[in-house]
């Protein structure tokens, strides 16, 4: 009788194995992705499979009921103690006796796939750098003396093919007691950056340790620091937290922090200490939220802009403040994580810092590229990560370009007269009736329009406190579409617009969105200055995108992805009305949410993607906006608010108003904004 | 005209190179060992050569006076500033134009040879792991952005073939300022463990930094810690210092320290802290003595016994105190040195800890093996490193065996009634006239015998304070040869020996060496107890050696090497009289001095030897004395003092006395010492 045929599903891998071979061994032999932490000892139960019985016409086999060895005592014990799902077998126990079809359920695959929440169909395949390995270690023999560590290494090489392994001096004291406590069986947490480089022992537990191990994907922004705590085996996000970046006290934007470092001896060290303390706090807070031990965090990945990158690493960012904007280091870094977040996570935890693309285009942009994969896009995609700086990527399978653009903090509600950060009570949605010029709005934390019944009650605790970044964008765009603002960005006078909501403030006008002064609340207006600030920010953003389009020699893009926490809230229609982004069909403008954070999470869960992002960054063509004369030209040219209606007819059922112009009246500004100022 | 022929001496390497090739380039092409730190920029002057002129009949060439390009401005400037020896050229400047013979002087060779002080002819070839490398780094270009570190790496790969290099996070802050201060030229201290593994950047200096870098070879003994500070380029020993091991307060011998760790929670940590502080002090003291900056120390090597090994590494040595004497780790270790000697040397310095051979045979024995190379000996050599424990190696090219033997501290003067450590005033040499039974002796710090004129004056400051290890060995051996002690180790009575220097002490007798009680000094005697202590120690030593001889199936050895600081002072003749070591022709007994320290120095200066010692340790067959029944048998059998005269006639002109026996009188001990005790 010939050797039995085994067919694994869903992979379809098949082959003949000697009768009596365990399913786990057969899977290894045929390269089937079947998990095991205990190496086949019937301890970890990770290798559960579902064998089939009967006719499998698709595969051309009939599986007899006795195709596998009988349910054995190890399985019975496991079933009693922990419960084994109906029809499941332990792959390390069940032996193949006759032709068989064996299904590997998703949770038994090492390279499980994690479905991302966004509409995007890409999935993250699990391939974490740090995993658990159970081994039996040979006991010491004084007649063939060798160290306990050397025997542990030997077992790891034999059982798990881990040939080379580095061990930190700090782990050695616990080695002997752990081996003896586990009666020469130990579970090791081992970091394997890739198969070419030495592995690294991170921790040891006596006997079988089930885990889970955790990882932290960190998006270190100028303003906020966000982290996802993930299960390193399943990929599950167990908690997501955010804290303010404490460096804000040294300067709101990046360049003011660079200046702080330049002007204050030791200022960089001060900022490094502050951000590392915040990272440590965040790690602890996230672990608390997820109800896991912070010491179970063995991996972190970090994405951030170049200035934050340098400050987190303890490097003075002074060179980033002046041409040629030289990074101290640009490649991805692997480090001990404890340095970056002292006393917060496992002391042996490893950090992977994503590579920077250029002096102004950081690891956050690299993470966005990893998440959004422009290099795999068949159509030309523009990806904009809007924050205090905007990171812009443009490309497709043929080529990818990147730049950053100094949009400033206006999009985040700063430098806006009634502006505030996105927080409950902040106006985030605005509509203005083109006929009556009356507004309605929504605030963060409430789904009702302010004109709806119950709004006052629903917002009783927060009130209406101001306007956030997405709110001011909508307000300005709506003012433009309602004929209150002309192409140059000028607000029309009370008379010209015919609404009492427009009032004069000195030589310019402002539009009243909301007046709560009677109840002791704020008066929320959009001033001429606010519109100028938004114009500067959006011109910078547009100019950056335009510069990349020039470089590629194109005038339009196929689709646009808005990334960043803020990008998730921008209304694409309003962004296009303002000319923040190039025109594109509205259904081709999507939000990627916090794509940088997603990129950090991908790198956290899959070590191959760490190599991929390095390769991707090497291939990206960098464009430096700061010294590019065309950037200035585009910037100036982009100052106007191009559209009096939504740019694509399907976006708006409203008949366009006649194009207004409020410039003739000598109201102090012309179509090009800042450049020329009429005197006297 | 064909390409000129260049012949290098002393290597004899030869080949044709294109006319105009520099001597340095030619040397690299032909694999000639010619040093250069600056990579051919005419800065470091390490590549000095002596070109020949005239007839070289041996090589079959005639060298024309214009065989090399003319003395150039770089050489002229160097000569003016620093001086260039007569006839020397800079290899990177002189170009080969015609056939030429070029001598590379020893100081221009990378792999210089260091002559060891001992009579031994072996030399240490210089091949330090850490060296200096000068590179020019490309300036940053914002249009092709990359990190400063990445450009440094590129230059190192191009100029020095350093393909992979790890950089500690702590070095990154200084990278950008250093590159700019050096105008994009920097000298790097780089550690290259071998060519297969990544290099590691240890330090950076702007521009050309001449060095020197230093290394510290440390022999961490139970009682004393000794260190040699060496120049990592020339190998020169610039200072040698020693301090007491502060762990002595936790126990004189190793097992009492293991007990301390077992009995006192945290006792191991306490001992680790103490020994690391002592290592740091020693490093600073040695640097001070050598008048060098402690921060110029970039490498250390460490040899020690297993207990000290574990305590220095921060590992509880408890497992070493009980069978199966399991080491936590036995292989050689590479670590950051700063952990072992906090805040004493360069913070990036690297440590290499030699491998342990077995639970009782440490890295010190491995270092002795490296230094004495029994595996290269064509005759059978017994190497004994005598200290509180004796490390014993036996072997030749065919096989090498090792064991350790618990000799206890008697050989160091402890547990001896008038014993003391080797210090000025201690009796170290003894002779007893076989006829008169009168002694004469020398003390440490004075070359005169006590019977010589001027002895009292010469020793006025120290006096005669006691007897040290080598003194008690000589005293006992001389007593044996003078007929005062019988084969069983028993001291004869006053009557039997016929000398008033023998007096009764209870049921046994003692021999008076020196009486200074009249001047308030000590009475230095050799008691029956002293002889028993020496018998125990020497039996242990002999039994260990004998056990290895059994294992090899031999009854004698061809030569004996006495190693260890103490081994240097033992008189081979007296050692053999006592039966400490197997009989061998006296001219075949040599002292290797501090062979463990020499081994540490070899590993410090030559990275290939680090691999060699690991390979050697793997090949050594370990014999565990603690559980070997034959060890007990040999130990008991070795109790007697075998020789009434020096065992080889040429050692002694004296006619042997009749063999005495003091046992008949019922003096309380018989020939086998401890084992049987006559009652009543």
Description:
Two copies of one chain form a homodimer. With 680 residues, chain A is of the alpha/beta class. Chain A folds into five domains: 5-108, Beta-grasp domain (Ubiquitin-like (UB roll)), CATH 3.10.20.30; 129-206, Ubiquitin-like (UB roll); 218-353, Nucleotidyltransferase, domain 5 (2-Layer Sandwich), CATH 3.30.420.480; 371-409 and 534-651, 2-Layer Sandwich (Nucleotidyltransferase, domain 5); 413-526, no CATH class. Chain A has a six-stranded mixed β-sheet with strand order 18-17-16-19-21-20, sandwiched between helices. A six-stranded mixed β-sheet of chain A has the order 32-31-22-23-24-33, sandwiched between helices. The longest helix of chain A has 25 residues, at 528-552. Chain A is elongated, with a radius of gyration of 30 Å. At the A-B interface, helix 3, helix 4 and strand 20 of A face helix 3, helix 4 and strand 20 of B.
Short description:
The structure is a homodimer of 680-residue chains. With 680 residues, chain A is an alpha/beta fold.
